[in-house]
Amino acid sequence: MSDKLAYIQQIETQISDVKATLEQLKTDRDRILEQAQHEEIEQLEQHLADAQLRLADIANAADEAWHEITLAIDEAIKGLQAKVQNLLNR
């Protein structure tokens, strides 16, 4: 076998190894991103449940006190909407 042919085969093998490594990295990245997205969705579901509880607090609050609760709910809803939008933009 000539030196040229041996060199070409060596480089082809190295290229093949790099391709395989890149494919594994892509698979790992996709799995990690999917896992992170699931965790973020679970957090958003918890925030949503909290917002629903706060809404129930307003419904049960005395007429004078409900205005105070609305500030916390408004902030929670804005944060929730921002997180959902961020998740959708990925």
Structural notes for this entry:
The protein is an all-alpha fold. The chain has two helices and no strands. α1 runs antiparallel to α2. The longest helix is centred in the middle third of the chain and has 58 residues, at 3-60.
Task: Summarize it.
It is built from two helices and no strands. It has 90 residues and is mainly α.
DSSP E strands, number: 0
Low-confidence stretches: none
Could you say which overall geometry the principal axes of the C-alpha atoms support?
A: rod-shaped
Continuous helix count: 2
Structural class: mainly alpha
- Write down the Rg: 27 Å
What are the secondary-structure elements, in order, as H or E? HH
Largest sheet: none
Average pLDDT number: 82
- Helical fraction equals over 70%
Report strand %.
under 5%
Distance between the termini: 51 Å
